[in-house]
Amino acid sequence: xxxxxxxxxxxxxxxxxxxxxxxxxxxxxxxxxxxxxxxxxxxxxxxxxxxxxxxxxxxxxxxxxxxxxxxxxxxxxxxxxxxxxxxxxxxxxxxxxxxxxxxxxxxxxxxxxxxxxxxxxxxxxxxxxxxxxxxxxxxxxxxxxxxxxxxxxxxxxxxxxxxxxxxxxxxxxxxxxxxxxxxxxxxxxxxxxxxxxxxxxxxxxxxxxxxxxxxxxxxxxxxxxxxxxxxxxxxxxxxxxxxxxxxxxxxxxxxxxxxxxxxxxxxxxxxxxxxxxxxxxxxxxxxxxxxxxxxxxxxxxxxxxxxxxxxxxxxxxxxxxxxxxxxxxxxxxxxxxxxxxxxxxxxxxxxxxxxxxxxxxxxxxxxxxxxxxxxxxxxxxxxxxxxxxxxxxxxxxxxxxxxxxxxxxxxxxxxxxxxxxxxxxxxxxxxxxxxx
Length: 436
Known about the structure:
Blueprint: H1 12-24, E1 32-33, E2 46-47, E3 56-57, H2 58-74, H3 78-81, H4 91-101, E4 108-111, H5 114-125, E5 134-138, H6 143-155, H7 160-163, E6 164-167, H8 178-188, E7 192-198, H9 210-219, E8 223-227, E9 246-249, E10 263-267, H10 314-330, H11 332-354, E11 359-361, E12 374-378, H12 383-394, E13 396-397, E14 399-401, E15 405-408, H13 417-430
Parallel strand pairs: 2-13, 5-6, 5-7, 7-8, 8-9
Antiparallel strand pairs: 1-3, 4-10, 9-10, 11-12, 12-15, 14-15
Helix pairs in contact: 1-13, 2-10, 4-10, 5-6, 8-9, 11-13, 12-13
């Protein structure tokens, strides 16, 4: 239910400038369904929670229905006779996914969910031996990653409290410095079996220096993997050229493929076809040409498809394909340029809002050290309660991480400068000034 507009926050004069910027730099909002506002004076929500769940592309429903219709009309024959045949359906996603992350098609496959893929990759790439047993992650890693690496350590008979190293920011700082990661690797690298960091930190929005850290990890003799849940579709990536060993990402955040959507995997070509790598296998791990020979032994291809296990879920792949086609059409360079512009505009507004309020932006100020996210620490009260007020009183949808972080993601595909202005206006109206 819409509520009356709040009293002016003092940002009314800036609304015209936001509108002018939108006219000068239009995005692609028209390609998406934007939720209606649940409060405030605007029809549509200012949706800045795409780092948690992206919006639905308008094309998704019709294309998904078309795949469903093939099942209705063809039954089992849809595997070969559908307009988009199911048997090789996953191959429709391979090339655009590879372009998105800077890889060769043989290095990328869309399958499973993020943490499942991390486990499958760690089967191959976390191989503790001798003194080299540690897994290094960031202290503010997403909990699922923490659970995954601790369970991997236990699986290998190790104590996760000693096998898992959590790198923390310096005292009084909110984000990791690149030199602290590389410094640890220089000092302790001979004990590190696996370095597994988030490309963009989910909590702070910090973009890690992936190429520099990867080079330091490999120079130390460690395997280097990246969780790109908040990086894929957010920032330009060049996984092959950066010499990353492996990576995994989800597709329901910046990739707008729907809740719980299928995830992606990258394995560098130097590992492909390596018969010495341990790997779990299933029907889809074998060469496609031999799949229906029904032999008892797998003959895996010399591509990342050797890490596949099961028959791909076609109706889950459809929305990922639709989204990847959008990214191909718009292009990451254009999206990154718009992201830097939008996020910088919001950062400037937040500077004014936070100056005399118990609010602190914890995301790095430098554009090259962040993606489409600004995280704000609140000095009093609950982040979840503040997010609720922003939504129901102002129609601003953001994402809270308790106890004290609220995250704003000006996603360049569908967010506008006016959305960013609404965030600042709503925060100014909702959070009292210290001296008021």
